[in-house]
Amino acid sequence: MTSKAAPAISAPAAGDAVVVDYLIRRWRRRFDVMTVEQAQVALAMPASLPQRLRVLRWLKRNPTAWRQPARWDATPYTLTLTEDEKLLARHLVDGRALEGAVKRAVFDETRAAAAVNGLRAFGVLREDALADDLTPFLAGNGFTFHTVKVEGAPAYNVPCAIDFLLLLDEVYPHDRLTIEDACALTHRPLRVRLDQGEVVGTEPKATFLLRGGSCGTNNLFRSEAAAQNWLADHPDACTEGAPVEAYHRAMRVMGITLGGIDALRRTPDEYRALVAEGIRRVTKSKKAKKRK
Known about the structure:
The chain is of the alpha+beta class.
């Protein structure tokens, strides 16, 4: 039996080839789901909504081109919407009117106008109301994003909030980087700062990492209380979680690194048990130090 050849990839429009070629190279890296906007910045090109729309259409016609990020539940919309557009959409999906969503996102006039125009152009918004069918936009990772900013390097996204911890020890042991994210419950901004392979700070300080079970549900929250509120609406999600620094230490204690064990091959129950035991050990160690 002969295997079927992969469908041929058509050439993008002449003006988009540089961006598309750059993205395809980036997507070969583990957990790299760089967006078109991030590629435009990395290539010192002007931000262009028309170009993002053209690349969206090209991606839809050429699924083979983005099969690598598709492994991490990325979709053509994941790769072409901006972080501001995704964030505004999340507030709208929560039931807020457009004016209230913009206010909640804390966008200035320029950012608000760009995000609203983008959502209209992509079809998320019909005038000032959400489209009747959001299914294509909510598929895969939906409107979530986890942006990695390595000092001196282009920004890019990872599929879920645990991936950057897996990458930290193996790829960035000597780098200074920041994770820019938004709480999965409130959608308010949060930030994790990492340096020399360690979590050195979070904003807010109570930032909490919860493993919901898969890309799109492994998320950061502004507090443990926010994570527990989110879990109330997701009863089937896994439940292990901890402040980001403690979660990272738990992963190390249990050998959950790209170089140690391949955590991706563990069953959900095995992984959950490993992390839960790691968190227990880290918590026990902290309590012991306080008693001394």
